[in-house]
Design a protein that fits this description.
Length: about 375
């Protein structure tokens, strides 16, 4: 069966060009970049090249990049590393809609005695910047706010936030895992101190990411051990992953325009048709400030999981809530924070597209979705027909 993959915020296909680039680094060029011999040394050159490719996409210096094992490690490092570097400060500010890679860390720190402020969002998933400004005080060690939400695609005004936080002399971290490669970003013109990126969200392999650390930002290492990454992150480098991430970032820079034209066009077509053709459907999230690839729609009075199963029968992959929270029947914490009614939050589906999707796939899904929704509505105990 043909697979129609609309779950790109969960993970993406590795680009063919990336796969070609990394193949030699498993069985031929498998040396350790820390080795003294030439065989290992040549790997170090490739890692340097990857660092430059990533820096070019982000508009930063190659030396400001630390390789990690992905978004989760980057987020953990940013928060824990900052707290360790400024031990006299005990307050963390974040938002209620962060990914668990941030939120779970913050809640654990709260258990350990830190003060954690989780900023609320409005019905469209937008932050109140005045609330943020009022919360920053002398005890604040770090503000961590995501660039774009993985479930709704809502993009926060991160540059304005970074400027505000910098003005108060506090470290600012952003989890940009969902934003990089989808919307433009230039760190050379930004006040962001720390930024997380994950390879598998932009057509590189899983298990690799980076933490951008702006020159001069105080950060203690989180992973302790060897001297890799100039002592900033111990552990033998994931060489194929890093080289793949470099190539993926080079491709992302080339394809950014396509993400904001073709991918957006397909997303809009899918979204408009569903809202029009499926009764009782509503869009979740700020329509005007969103990633170009993501739509999150609630189908009232039906279970998202039931929709997913029926989509799956047609080979269509989507997600209800985020991949990490699906599996539990709890409605998503993001939709709950936005005040989406229970009956709608339960029936929410996220479609997240990529440059590999086609109009044919979108048209097929547009054709199937009303059938699925109508069938499940007929079965719903909550709706009298
Ligand atoms: C916003 C966000 N942050 C962090 C992560 C975690 O990244 P990784 O899977 O690379 O650990 C994800 C993954 O879904 C994400 O969407």
């Amino acid at each position: 069966m043909l697979i129609i993959y609309f779950d790109n915020n969960a993970t993406t296909k590795v680009a063919e060009e990336v796969l070609e680039e990394i193949k030699p680094f498993f069985c031929e060029l498998y040396g350790n970049p820390s080795s003294m011999h030439t065989f290992g040394g040549q790997i170090g050159i490739k890692i340097r090249q990857a660092r430059e490719q990533i820096a070019a996409l982000l508009g930063c210096e190659p030396s400001e990049i630390i390789f990690t094992a992905g978004g989760t490690e980057s987020d953990n490092t940013a928060i824990m590393g900052t707290l360790a570097a400024v031990p006299n400060k005990r307050k963390i500010i974040t938002s209620r809609v962060e990914h668990p890679a941030v939120l779970t860390v913050c809640r654990e720190l709260e258990n350990r005695g830190y003060t954690v402020v989780e900023l609320s969002v409005d019905k469209q998933g937008r932050l109140d910047l005045t609330e943020l400004e009022n919360q920053i005080d002398d005890d604040t060690a770090v503000v961590t706010i995501m660039y774009a939400n993985n479930e709704t695609g809502v993009v926060f005004p991160i540059e304005r936030i970074a400027e505000m936080v910098a003005g108060k002399g506090v470290v600012f971290h952003t989890d940009a895992v969902q934003a990089i490669g989808k919307i433009p970003l230039n760190l050379s013109e930004s006040n962001i101190d720390l930024l997380s990126l994950s390879g598998h969200k932009l057509h590189a392999p899983k298990g690799v990411g980076i933490l951008y650390v702006r020159k001069g930002t105080r950060l203690s290492p989180y992973m302790l051990g060897g001297h890799q990454e100039a002592g900033r992150r111990a552990g033998t480098e994931n060489v194929p992953g890093i080289i793949g991430l470099g190539k993926a970032c080079e491709l992302a820079a080339k394809n950014l325009e396509e993400e904001n034209s073709k991918v957006k066009y397909l997303r809009d077509k899918l979204e408009d048709a569903m809202l029009q053709n499926c009764p009782g459907s509503r869009l979740n999230g700020d329509k005007d400030n969103r990633l170009p690839n993501t739509t999150n729609i609630s189908f009232e009075y039906i279970e998202g999981e039931a929709i997913l199963l029926m989509l799956d029968k047609h080979g269509i992959c989507a997600s209800s809530g985020s991949a990490c929270t699906s599996g539990s029947l709890e409605p998503s914490h993001v939709l709950r924070a936005m005040g989406v009614p229970f009956t709608a939050a339960h029936g929410s589906i996220r479609f997240s597209l990529s440059r590999y999707n086609t109009e044919k796939e979108v048209d097929y899904t547009i054709e199937k979705m009303p059938e699925i929704v109508n069938k499940l509505r007929e079965l719903s105990p909550f709706v009298s027909t």
